[in-house]
TrEMBL record:
Belongs to the metallo-dependent hydrolases superfamily. Phosphotriesterase family. InterPro entries: Metal_Hydrolase, Phosphotriesterase. Coiled coil: none annotated. Keywords: Hydrolase, Metal-binding. This is Phosphotriesterase-related protein. It comes from the Bacteria. The modification N6-carboxylysine is found at residue 126. It comes from Kitasatospora paracochleata. PANTHER family: PHOSPHOTRIESTERASE-RELATED, PHOSPHOTRIESTERASE-RELATED PROTEIN. Gene3D superfamilies: Metal-dependent hydrolases (3.20.20.140). Pfam families: PTE. SUPFAM superfamilies: Metallo-dependent hydrolases.
Amino acid sequence: MTATVRTVLGELPPERLGLCDAHDHLFLRSPLLPGQELADPVAAEAELRQFAAHGGQALVQWTPYGMGRRRRDLVTLSRATGVHLVAATGLHQAVHYDPRTLRGLDLAALFVAELTGDGPRAGLIKVAGGYHGLDAHARRTMAAAAEAHHATGAPIAVHHELGTAADEVLDLLCDSHGVAPDRVILGHLGRFPDLRLHRRLADAGAYLAFDGPSRTHHATDHHLFDCLVSLADAGHLDRLLLGGDTTTAAARGNPGPAHLPRTLRPRITAELGEPAATRILVTNPAHAFAW
C-alpha cells in the first residue's frame, strides 16, 4: 500500500506536501490559557496567506481532541488558501481538560475513529509527557496512541514539557509498546538543548522537532542553530523537523508560520546548504507524516 499524508482535504502523495511547518496551531483552547484562545478563522486565514506568500505549502496542527481544533474550519481554510493542513487526534496533559471530559473514554477507539472515520480525518496522534517524567494519564494516553498507531500506521507526535523526558517517552512507546522509532516525532527539544541527548534520540531513529520561534517560546531561538548543526554534523539531517508552535492569541503573527520560509530557510541555507534546508523543511516532513 502506498503511504500518503492525511490532510483535512483527503490523502496527499508525500511528494506534494511541499515546504512544511511541522508543528503549529491555528486553533487552540485550554483552561490554562484563559483569554488567549486561538479561535479566529479570519486571523488564521491571514496567517496562512502570509505563510503561502513566502513559499509555505503545508502546516501540521498539533491541537488534539478536546482543545478547540475546529476541523471544519481547517477544511475551509485549506480550500481558501491552498495550504495543505494536517489535523491531530490524541490528548494533551490532563491539566488541559475538565476531568469529566475524559471519564470513560475508550481512547484507542476514539483515536482510530478520528484517523479513519467520516469527516475531516486526523493525520497524526498527539500525546504529551510531563516535566522529567510520565504520570498515569501520560502512560494511559501513550498506550492508547500506540494501539491506534498499530491499527492505522499513523505517526505519534509528542509534547515534551520544557523538552524533558524524551528518552523515557521513546522507551515507553518503542520498547514497551512496539512502535517503530521512525514513527515517533519528539517535540519541543529546543527547550532542553542537551546536544548529547539529541544525538542519542536521533541515533535511535526518532524525528526531532524544533518548534519555538514565537513570542511564547522565544527563549529557545538562540539554541536552534547549535542544535541543528550538532545533529547535522552527526549525520542526522534526515531526523530534523521545524515548526512555529504558536499557542496563544498574543503570540499570533509574532513571527508566525511565515518565519520558517521567510527567515529560517535562508539562514539554514547559509549555514548548512540548500540541500539541507530542503531536507529539513520539505523532505523530512513528507516522510514523517506519511502513513
